[in-house]
Amino acid sequence: MRKKIVAGNWKMHKNAAQTEELLNELIAKIPAETDAQVIVAPTFVNLASAVNQLKSTAIGVSAQNMHQAESGAYTGEISADMLTSVGVKTVILGHSERRAIFHETDALIASKVDTALQHDMTVIFCFGEELKDRQSQNHFNIVENQLKDGLFHLQAKDWEKIVLAYEPVWAIGTGETASPEQAQEMHEFIRETVRKAFGSDVAEDVSILYGGSVKPDNAKEIFSKPDVDGGLIGGAALKAEDFVAIVTAI
Ligand code: PGA
Known about the structure:
Helices cover 43% and strands 15% of the residues. The chain is α/β, with parallel strands linked by helices. The chain is globular. 43% of the residues are buried.
């Protein structure tokens, strides 16, 4: 069943004490009766403590990345087994910062997706066009290709573990948001693309989140669109008040 999800991507922010403090605020402030699934993605070193702290709450914990190999000589990397061994069952893959700054290709991201699924993890798969793509009217092509290259080798049943996060790169951390109409237009296109390849059941069940400068004052309008099932929140996830307001907006 399609779920409403609000996920906070904390990126490289918050040390151990700050993580604990923000989580305590979220535990206190997120209304128990919210029908959205709430997920937070602190940094690797704070994942185990976050899982512990959130044990008796409905708030889930996600990693922001992981390596595709099972183990090996990959200095500085973290495996799926390491994540699941501390209770992390979700991972964000393909974030535009991983693609742009760390040169992750569609093929690499596809192999990370495979590894995550082999470990029964849920994948929040990020993709989205750059400003130049939108300006040259190439944004639908780019998005379709990222989807195909990252996920279309999967079987229909694998999609139970996939959450899509459409994040136009020009809207990430820029304060510029896609209009609710632009988000809806792209989310509808994404759902249709999935429908053509995997059928209606998969397309109707997959949650498609919007990400890119979602704030308390624009969340409600974006979330009101029929094909927008929630958000992946960066900057506004770092302040309890803002993140809770976004969770409430859904
Ligand atoms: P932003 O980040 O909300 O700060 O634009 C979103 C993201 O990178 O996932």
